[in-house]
Amino acid sequence: MVDILTHLGAYFLMLRKAFTRPEKMKIFFKRLSAEMELIGVDSVALVSILSLFMGAVILIQSAYNFENPLIPSYAEGVATRDSMLLEFSPTIISLILVGKVGSSIASELGTMRVTEQIDALQIMGVNPVNHLILPKILAGVFIIPFLILLSMFLGILGGFLATLVTESVSTHKYIYGIQYGFEPYYIVYALTKACVFAFILTSISSYQGFTTKGGALEVGKSSTKAVVFSTIVIILFNLILTKLLLN
Amino acid sequence: MIEIGNISKVFGDRKILSDVSMYLETGKVNMVIGQSGAGKSVLLKCLVGLLETDAGEVWYDGRNFTEMNYEQKKALRREVGMLFQGGALFDSMTVEENVAFPLEMFTKMSKEERTERANFCLKRVNLPASNKLYPDEISGGMKKRVAIARAIAMNPKYLFCDEPNSGLDPQTSIVIDNLIREITLEYNMTTVVISHDMNSVMEISDNIFFVFNGQKWWEGNRNDLLKTDNKELCDFVFASTFMKEFKSSSQSKR
Ligand SMILES: Nc1ncnc2c1ncn2[C@@H]1O[C@H](COP(=O)(O)OP(=O)(O)O)[C@@H](O)[C@H]1O
Ligand SMILES: [Mg+2]
After folding, report:
1. pLDDT at A74
2. pLDDT at A92
3. Average pLDDT over chain A, rounded to an integer
4. In the beta sheet, which residues pair with residue B169?
């Protein structure tokens, strides 16, 4: 318990050091765009494939479950859209990004720590937390919501493509379904979650990497811890946010 | 000149440094020697504030480093060049970018001026034609040279080297050692070199500090070292047959 509090304290101290004015704006923007590429652009393929297939699977499963004649024929469209918007895109994609982005952040910073690159920055008079971590957090909070939007779109597209090969759901009913009773608020809800989850995953992974002690073995451990803790905290916040935002 | 006044450092319940005082002269190579695990790296990290000391003070040319706040320490560190044990080059940058990095961060130099200064420093350490390579594409000795070039890019007043020739072959070691000595004299820096290599001690040291059991056990120069009868120091220095022979030959000459 004391351990958790110590880490929590150190984590918030790190955040305070991160959110300071960068030494040189030009270098900061260079770092920011590099991180956006690393976190965002490099994840596009993974997110796209997952979302397309997930949308298709949700449609096929709901078609299988909704064979009851009492359920309207456009229900599969509604189900696919709402599952993607409310849960799959914001939460599941964030959890998948924890595995991809979080572990790479932690191992990058961990390696820099054990090879004394972070000490070298500090000796030069650079604030290493600000220089290394702030661009990661900001890039994540900015770019991950776009990935989530992409995922929603492709998920619904995946459902559409699946209707072409599924006899029980007609394509035009699906198109009607995905528009039926559409709540724009769901998008706001999903993007709010995406921002919060992006902050959690980038900052916790950075903390784990930055505080690595020892050698190569510990870098691996930090990377694992980054994934485990980010996942737990995201799941916790998912519950809290769902309660807060959908009431 | 750097004055270390009675610093102590404790990790948990282990006292790593106790009551260490040193006077590190400007324009000289000040060498800290001792067995591995004696606390040499910890001493160096305390000097630059990478580790907090538990007691004592460090003065840089009359400025009390220990009492400085974060911003003041950051400003003073710009006068410090440091060579880490493994080089600590930034792997995501090329050799030239590594050397130019502190210039980009802290000066208003244009890109051309930075490149020129970086090339000057790289030439100074005799490392031509590797500017566009990445750290994992060059050898250990070259990494050390790049690290020296980066350390001197900002014209530091103080140069700290942690085992500059660990992992290098004897020939490259001598080149690196001599480079450190030349640069120290050329720019009149206060240089601190940590080493357990008796060759470099005999080659380049002006002042020698022997750390044993977390204490400064002995200090003197090369001649004092050969004449010492301090038991722990003799055990350390004359552990190799080479040094034993070196001692007896230097005594028989007189
Ligand atoms: N951050 C740290 N936390 C705990 N113990 C440490 C730390 N850094 C060094 N030590 C311990 O301090 C002692 C001296 O280490 P060091 O100064 O690296 O030795 P050396 O003289 O070989 O450079 C070692 O026993 C090491 O285990
Ligand atoms: Mg050491």
Report:
1. 87
2. 95
3. 94
4. none
What was the pLDDT predicted at A22?
Answer: 93
List, for residues B208-227, the tens digit of each pLDDT value.
999 998 999 999 998 888 88
Out of B50, B89, B106, the one facing A122 most closely (by C-beta) is: B50
- Rounded to whole angstroms, the Cα distance separating A32 from A29 reads 5
Rounded CA separation B73/B36 (Å):
29
Distance B42 CA to ligand 2 centre (A): 7
**pLDDT score for B171:** 87
ipTM above 0.95, yes or no: no
Architecture of domain B1-79+158-222: 3-Layer(aba) Sandwich (3.40)
Going by the DSSP 8-state scheme, the letter that residue A154 receives in this structure is: H
Assigned domain for A121 exists: yes
Q: Is residue A18 part of a domain?
A: no
Q: What is the pLDDT of residues A100-115, one digit of tens each?
A: 999 999 999 999 999 9
Tell me the ligand closest to B51's alpha carbon. Answer: 1
Residue A11 lies in a domain: no
Distance CA B135, CA B143 (A): 7
Q: Please state, in angstroms and rounded to a whole number, the distance separating the CA atoms of residues B77 and B158.
A: 9
Chain A residue numbers with beta carbons less than 8 Å from the beta carbon of B154 are 124
In-domain check, residue A86: yes
User: What are the φ/ψ torsions at residue B153 (nearest 5 degrees)?
Assistant: -55, -40
DSSP-assigned beta bridge partners for residue B22? B4
The total number of structural domains that make up chain A: 1
Q: Which residues of chain B have a CB within 8 Å of the CB of A109?
A: none
Which residues constitute the domain of residue A84?
Answer: 25-245
Name the residue with tokens 């096929």: A60
Residues 6 or more apart from A37 whose CB is under 8 A from it? none
